[in-house]
Fold this sequence. Notes:
The structure holds two protein chains of two kinds. By secondary structure, chain A is an all-alpha fold. Helices cover 77% and strands 1% of the residues of chain A.
Amino acid sequence: MISSRHLMLLGLLALLTLASLIVSLLSGSVDLGLSDLIAVLFGSPDNLQAQVLYEIRIPRTLAAFTTGGLLAISGVIMQVLLRNPLADPYILGISGGAAVGALSAILLGLGGWWVSNSAFLGALFSILIVFGLANKFGKWSVTRLLLTGVVMSAGWGAVINILLTTSSSNNVQSMLFWLMGDLSQSSVTIGHAMLLASGLLIGVYFARALNVLIRGELVASALGVNVETVRVILYFSASLLTASAVTIAGSVGFVGLIIPHMLRLLGARDHRILIPSSVLLGGSFLVIADSLARSIIAPQQLPVGVITAVIGVPAFLIILRSTIKQ
Amino acid sequence: MKDNLLDIRSLTLQIVGKSLCKNLDLAISHNQHWGLLGKNGVGKTSLLHCLMGLREIDAGSILLHGKPMSELSRRELATEIGILFQENIHTLPSTVLETVLLGRHPHVQSMLRDDPRDLQKAQQALQEFDLADMAGRYIDSLSGGEKQRLALAMLVVQSPKLFLLDEPSNHLDIAYQISMLDLLKKKIDEQEASFIMATHDINLAARYCDRIILLMGDGNYLSGSKQTILNEKNLSTAYNCEIQSVAIQDRTLFFPA
């Protein structure tokens, strides 16, 4: 059921998104004011400021927004499909596989392109293994999927530790940044943006089915949802969205777990609202976190994943606490 | 044959090699009240799940309005048949009103827009099932009985032609058992629908049903009018326990000897 309150929430989130984008474009080591931003964006003078904006800040801001949006949609879908409030985009081991791919590329001294692509391959490999092993006669039980995913994650964790302990300290620094989630090396392509757009469309298209799936697969089937098909499409989409997010920014934590819960607590429980809200809040949350990550101890940068946890945890606890009182 | 709502033809069901029913033949038409009885584990729930298309059948066929059920889409099925489950899942938060509205899911036309009539139906059902003042509450704050009433309200909002009720009296106190089942039966009759009610309470079945299916536990079954099926001999055999009856105020009550 969609009420005017929901539309207001969407409106507020759109404003928050706009504000976060502006803040992100204005923060960094080169001074740039709002008037400069407008002058560059609408007058396009060819100077240092324009260069900083077009070559550094805009791509990075877009990368942050896309990653946040992808993770938040994926988190919503995983929590519904696995019917587990603790589920996040990484719970089925996707980030573990991606990490092993990325870290191996770093270990071999390969560049950014190789790191993202081997991360993507690692993620796909992990998805195939988990869904292949958990599959029994074409059916996945939630428990078997969760157990397979969690055990695979543990396995990947061991490989990650081997890679970390056997690498030179130089490499370990980049590896740790990748593992915590970092946007300083990120580039986002039109492909990522299209994936986010398709994730949003798929999420909204299946929003009513997701509303029913919360009650479990049996209830959803009995209420007319073609669970077998919908489940395959949604698992596949959520996995692909996660794989794409980790190739952009490494395994940024908390976004996929807490953004969906925050929005549910704020009343966005209908997926027709929850999915678009997640894109906006997940995206702008990561944009803000990344602005902080590159300005708190500038010119040095922090991995954005640290900031998401530092802001995300107290913000989530405050919302949880205030809604319990109601 | 076209007049029948549901035709079950030589249906065979097995679970891990044990036969739940063999060659079950049953025709269910409009305005019928069926009781499904048998001891624990005999396959009452499995049979209901089959009729909802949630479980594969081992042999035989089930026809809905003369059409094989396997040819119908989930959505078509859900507009004709609705089921009350014994167990319900409540892991992510949702409110009473949101949940009861889900009952309209098979009927929704638009992907994005809500039909105000659906909201009206949902609110009416909440009123009738004594849940109106809890519309905004989270489900996990409800008692077992309130959750059961919510599930009944959701089914009424779905308004199928055949109601499959798995232990509808679960979690309800004695007063609510009667008032809620009276109400449910009234709503079902108003819609000229039918129900099959699986229950372990023989007296409840005797009170609300006029036809009985009694699963014997070895794959055999008895079906027919309440008067012919519900007697001491049949029940004692089916439950493997001596059951006696007593006539009281033009009703027959059954109790273990």
